[in-house]
Design a protein that fits this description.
about 160 residues, Vanillyl-alcohol Oxidase, Chain A, domain 3, globular
Length: about 160
């Protein structure tokens, strides 16, 4: 049952037309120490229209349990997954989608100021080399080495 828990939601999104729209998602790892402050900020910025049929997921987890080398975690024993999963309403204009993506960048910048790290999916535009260095910290050199080895054509970002 657990594996299929979202099947009904997916079917609804497809039937209602939300599934086929752009998905300007924002996914972050927040430190416990600033999660509540960031969530209040997000609450002040979102509207029902900016979520469409989407959801905002957040839940705590022990950062020590995340062992993938490039899944950079906030400097806190407890992190909070923040997943803004927007499913815009059918017919949402390109300009409105662009506004959501721009808002993602603004929210991302506020989250980073509070010690958050990005979960590397979603729509955060215009990340610079400095943004990537700040995100990966001391692991940035290892990332660059892996990119040279496994992505010599620079197809992938960063």
């Amino acid at each position: 049952d657990y594996l299929f828990r979202l099947d009904g939601y997916e079917a609804f999104l497809k039937e209602a037309g939300h599934w086929f729209e752009a998905k300007p998602w924002l996914s972050l790892f927040l430190p416990r120490s600033s999660a509540a402050r960031f969530l209040r900020l997000v609450e002040s910025q979102l509207t029902p229209e900016s979520l469409g049929a989407g959801v905002l997921l957040t839940y705590p987890y022990p950062t020590s349990k995340v062992t993938a080398p490039m899944a950079v975690q906030p400097n806190d024993r407890t992190g909070y997954l923040f997943d803004l999963l927007r499913f815009p309403n059918p017919g949402t204009s390109d300009a409105e989608i662009a506004r959501m993506v721009k808002q993602n960048r603004w929210l991302y910048d506020r989250a980073v100021e509070l010690g958050a790290k990005r979960y590397l999916v979603g729509a955060v535009p215009d990340l610079t080399a400095a943004d990537w260095r700040r995100h990966f910290g001391s692991s940035y050199g290892a990332l660059c080495d892996a990119k040279r080895r496994f992505d010599p054509g620079n197809v992938l970002t960063p």
